[in-house]
Automatic annotation (TrEMBL):
The keyword Repeat applies. Keywords: Repeat, TPR repeat. This is Tetratricopeptide repeat-containing protein. It comes from Flavobacterium terrae. Coiled coil: none annotated.
């Protein structure tokens, strides 16, 4: 459970602490010094290094085989025309919901999913005892995160065990609900069905079920060292993934998916690794894993040359594989190729170049190449925001302008982030900083944003950063009545993030005098 230190801090700031006579601040700071924020700007407002590897059915396909719905202006005009003809049509309302969901407007999507579900239940133009009725209803309920979504999908499958809509979405529901055994069983049955024309979809969800089933163990900090000593094939039941692929040895797409599942497992294994002080992952794979990575490099180079899969997925995979072995320049080369070659017309919410942009940004941050990081981030925003706005991109832009002391532009990007999520922790804590730096410690609006951000703390990292942020303001504004509060809260931060103990001790030694 998080101990929200910040609420205590800001009550104490305006009180004369009875114990403050034994604690004083060592230094005084002028307005120019405060802008420098003790050199902690990048420590507190740190751009995250996001690394992910997504696997989907489209990754094993050629571009010409991928024909997704294009959620663009033409699509919007089309469904607007349909809605004008029948404003209560549940399928049209669902199309509106999907449009807004895929263009980053979650609140409007929820409104239209709700309308669609209501009208489907009351006025569906299909029999209410049909598989289609229940499968469509279940999908609407899934999008609204309703508990009975699985129940309706199961009703559809009882009526028609081969209902394509239910079969495609059922394993996803089960995995989301952490019913992994059930999900694997459903997928196994589909894999064993000789009449199944698309066994690769069942294989994909079976494999994801295997990996996600053990994810909590990998996230367990108490077992981090123990897990690090295991290969990725031991962390997850890769034997069952291999056995499942053996059922369809002649299916090339399953063969390619199996190789991608290896990369996914190796990616998740990084959660067990240590990080450097500037949060770079120390890639520490064992000999077995290194051998596997090198073989996968050869495999995907061959797939790329022989055009067995689309060039985006091949280059994406190679970029990640070279990242694993610290060959960062080759990783950058393949990441850039993947981004360049990805066709905008094939983009979906689950098949896109976003993850490669984030890998490329991480690689530039690791190299301390700020120019190319900023260039890549701006390119990503320009290319992808018309499809879906990313709050992380906007807060990262705000941080970049903060680093340049351009507070006005930093605030502008914070406000853009809050248009997507008004309660975003990063945006609120940065707005608090900008206002307090500009108007002083007693800035009402700065205190307001700081209080609001404290309500949005999600983990110990957020708590640590906000608490250090608050203590730093006390140091900068030099009221000795707050010295004890600053000391206590920095000390408490050691318990939140023990690996930052050295940093906390240095902060105390540099700025707080403990008098006998």
């Amino acid at each position: 459970m998080l101990n929200k230190l910040l609420l205590t801090i800001f009550i104490l700031i305006f009180n004369q602490n009875l114990f403050s006579q034994t604690y004083t601040f060592k230094k005084k700071f002028n307005s120019d010094d405060r802008i420098e924020f003790l050199g902690l700007t990048k420590e507190i407002f740190e751009i995250n290094k996001n690394i992910s590897y997504n696997v989907g059915n489209y990754d094993t396909a050629q571009f010409e085989q991928i024909k997704p719905v294009q959620y663009n202006d033409d699509y919007l005009k089309k469904i607007q025309t349909e809605l004008a003809k029948d404003s209560l049509n549940a399928i049209t309302l669902s199309n509106f919901a999907n449009y807004y969901s895929n263009t980053g407007n979650g609140s409007l999507a929820k409104i239209y999913f709700t309308k669609s579900l209501k009208n489907w239940s009351l006025k569906a133009k299909t029999k209410k005892d049909s598989a289609f009725y229940y499968s469509f209803k279940g999908i609407l309920e899934m999008n609204l995160e309703k508990e009975n979504a699985i129940e309706d999908i199961e009703k559809a499958l009882e009526i028609n065990p081969k209902d394509s809509i239910a079969l495609n979405f059922y394993p996803i529901f089960l995995i989301q609900k952490k019913e992994f055994s059930k999900a694997k069983k459903v997928c196994s049955t589909a894999l064993e069905d000789p009449k199944n024309e698309n066994p690769e979809i069942a294989y994909l969800f079976f494999s994801l079920g295997v990996i996600f089933e053990n994810m909590e163990k990998v996230f367990d900090e108490s077992k981090k060292i123990e897990n690090r000593k295991k290969s990725y094939t031991e962390l997850f039941d890769y034997k069952s993934i291999e056995n499942a692929s053996a059922l369809h040895q002649k299916n090339q797409r399953i063969l390619y998916l199996k190789k991608m599942m290896d990369i996914l497992g190796l990616t998740v294994k990084m959660l067990t690794f240590e990080t450097t002080p500037d949060n770079n992952v120390i890639r520490d794979y064992d000999k077995f894993e290194i051998k596997k990575i090198n073989q996968l490099k050869l495999d995907f180079q061959e797939l790329l040359i022989k055009k067995k899969i689309n060039p985006y997925s091949a280059n994406k995979s190679l970029a990640m594989l070279y990242f694993f072995t610290n060959e960062n320049e080759k990783a950058i080369e393949h990441a850039k190729k993947a981004i360049t070659i990805f066709p905008d017309s094939k983009r979906t919410s689950y098949f896109n170049s976003d993850e490669v942009y984030e890998l490329l940004q991480t690689l530039y941050l690791t190299k301390k190449d700020d120019i190319n990081f900023e260039k890549t981030l701006k390119e990503k925003i320009e290319k992808t925001s018309k499809h879906q706005k990313s709050i992380n991109d906007y807060t990262n832009m705000a941080y970049l302008y903060l680093y340049k002391n351009d507070f006005e532009e930093a605030e502008n990007w914070c406000n853009k982030a809050r248009e997507i999520d008004p309660d975003n922790f990063k945006a609120l804590s940065l707005l608090a900083h900008l206002k307090l730096m500009k108007n002083g410690l007693e800035s009402g609006i700065g205190q307001f944003y700081l209080g609001q951000s404290s309500k949005q703390i999600k983990d110990e990292s957020d708590n640590f950063n906000l608490s250090i942020q608050a203590a730093t303001y006390m140091i900068l504004y030099g009221n000795n009545a707050n010295a004890k509060s600053a000391y206590d809260n920095i000390e408490a931060c050691k318990k939140l993030v023990p690996k930052k103990t050295g940093f906390c001790d240095e902060l105390i030694n540099s700025y707080i005098q403990i008098n006998p």
